[in-house]
Amino acid sequence: MTLAVMLQGTASDVGKSVLVAGLCRIFRQDGLRTAPFKSQNMALNSGITPDGKEMGRAQIFQAEAAGIAPDVRMNPVLLKPTSDRKAQVVLMGKVATSMDAVSYHAYKPRLRAQILEVYASLRQEYEVMVLEGAGSPAEINLRDRDIVNMGMAEMAQCPVLLVADIDRGGVFASIYGTLALLQEEERARVKGVIINKFRGDVALLESGIGQIEALTGVPVLGVMPWLEVDLEDEDGVALQQGKYLRAGDRDIDIAVVQIPHISNFTDFNALAAQPDVRVRYVRRPEELAGADLIILPGSKNTLGDLVWLRESGMAHAAVRANRDGVPVMGICGGYQMLGETIVDEVESGLGTQPGLGLLDIVTRFSHCKTTTSVEGRMAALPGWLAPASDLPVKGYEIHMGDTTLAPGGAPALMLEKAGEFVPDGTLSEDGLVVGTYLHGLFDSDAFTRAVVDSLRQRKGLGPLNAAMDYAAYKEAQFDILADAMRRHIDIARIYQIMRDHREAAA
C-alpha cells in the first residue's frame, strides 16, 4: 500500500514547500521510493522536465530531494500570472490558455478528473506520496471548487498536517482560526500541526502548545527552528519578505533588477552560493551603484516590465552604468528587453515597443512556447567574458518570443538541439552586454567560476581558486534540512499517521 501525507498551510509562504522537500529526503534516506505532488501551483518560478514539459520549480527541487527526475505529473496545473488579474494556464506541461481568476474558478471542476487520474498513476509507481497544498485551506470563498487543498486531500484520501509560520506572529490564532473555518470532515482529516520558523527557546512555547492542543484536539508534532538552509522558493513572496537580502560584504557585488513580474529568480541561487559573491535584488536606480554586474532576469510580462524599467528610472540608470563600463547581462525576458525592438501582440497586448537598445536584436512574440532542456557551449567571447569561452553549459528554455540578430551579430552560446548546434543569445562587440534565453546557466560550475573570477580581475583581484560543485552543495542542503526535521519533528508519528489513516465512512 502506498503511504501518503499532505502538508497544508495557515497562509502562503509558511514553509510548506521546504518541509515537503525535507520529508521527501527523509523518506528517501529511509529507503522508500518517494514522489512530491502539487495539483495546482501558482508561480513564476518554473523549470523543464527531461522530456520538455514545464512545471513549478518547487516540485522540481522536491523531486531532487527525493532523488528522482522531475515528472510533469507532480505538478499537473501551473498558473503563471501575467498581470494582477490574468494568468497563463499550463496543463501537463503545455500552455492551454490564459484566464482571469473568475473564469479559472469556473473552469476548475473540469480539471478534477485529470488531476485524480494523474495522481493515481504516480501513486502506482511510488511507495510514499508527499502532497503540498496552496495558500490556506481556510479560504472559504474558494472551498466549493477546491482542487489543491482539502479538495485534493479528499481525492487522494490522505491525512493532512497543518504548517504554521511563527515568525510572522499570531501563530496560535492562525492555527485555531484555520481549523475553526474548516468543515467538520475537513478538520477530522488534520492529524497534526507543525510550527515553523521559530527563533529562540522552544520552552517559551510549551504552555501555548498545550493550550492549542486542548482547544483543537490536534497534536503539535514539532517546532522547526529558523533554518539557514539554501533552497529554492516557489514564488516571489520570498523576495517581498526579504529572504534574498544577502547580508555582509563580498568581493563581487551583483545587482539583479527586481522587475514586477520577475520569473525564475532561482537562476541566481548558484551565483549567490559562490563564497565571494553578494547578489542583491534591487528596485531603485541608486541601488545599482557599486554593482560589478547588472542582471535583467526573466519576466512573465516583458513589455509591462519594460515600461516599469523606464518609469522607475532603472532603464536610464542601467544604460548609464553600462556606458561607464559595468557589464549588463539579460536572461530570457531580460535578454529581450536589452534589444532594439519588441513586438508583442500575445503576452501584454502592448504591440511594438522600443527596447533598451544595448543589443542589436529584434524580438517577436508568438503563441508557440519554447520549452526544452538543453546543453551546449559558450561561443568565442570578447573582453571580460573571454575566460568563459567554449565552456560547457546546460539549462533550459521557457519563452514565447523569437529573437533575430542583426546581420553579422555574434551569438553568445551554441546549443545542441536535434543533433545540431544552433546559436543562442548575443553580445555586444566589447562584450559588456550579453543576453541569452538559457535559464539555469549559473548551475554550470566552470562557467560561473570563470565569470566571477573575470569580475574579480576587473577589480584588480586575483582568482579565488574556489571550485564549487553546486549539485553537491544542493544535496548537502537537503541533508541539513532532513537532519533538522528529524531532530525537531516527530517523524515516527508522521509514519504512524500515514499507516493508520482510514477514510471516514460516507
Structure overview:
With 506 residues, this protein is an alpha/beta fold. The mean pLDDT is 92. The strands form six sheets. A six-stranded parallel sheet has the order 2-9-1-10-11-12, sandwiched between helices. Strands 15-13-16-18-26-25 form a six-stranded mixed sheet. It starts with a strand and ends in a 6-residue tail after the last helix. Helix 1 (16-29) runs parallel beside helix 2 (57-66), helix 1 packs across helix 15 (470-488) and helix 6 (171-181) packs parallel to helix 8. It folds into two domains: 3-39 and 62-68 and 110-231 and 475-500, Rossmann fold (3-Layer(aba) Sandwich); 252-463, Class I glutamine amidotransferase (GATase) domain (Rossmann fold). The chain contains 16 helices and 26 strands.
Concise description?
The protein is α/β, with parallel strands linked by helices.
Rg to the nearest angstrom?
A: 23 Å
Mean pLDDT: 92
**CA-CA gap between termini:** 22 Å
The CATH homologous superfamily of the largest domain is termed: Class I glutamine amidotransferase (GATase) domain
CATH topology of the largest domain: Rossmann fold
Shape: globular
Structural class: alpha/beta
Low-confidence segments: none
Portion of residues within helices: 25-40%
According to CATH, what is the class of the largest domain? Answer: Alpha Beta
The count of domains is 2
Percentage of residues in DSSP E strands: 25-35%
| Strand arrangement across the biggest beta sheet | 2-9-1-10-11-12
Number of strands: 26
- The CATH level-2 architecture of the largest domain is identified as 3-Layer(aba) Sandwich
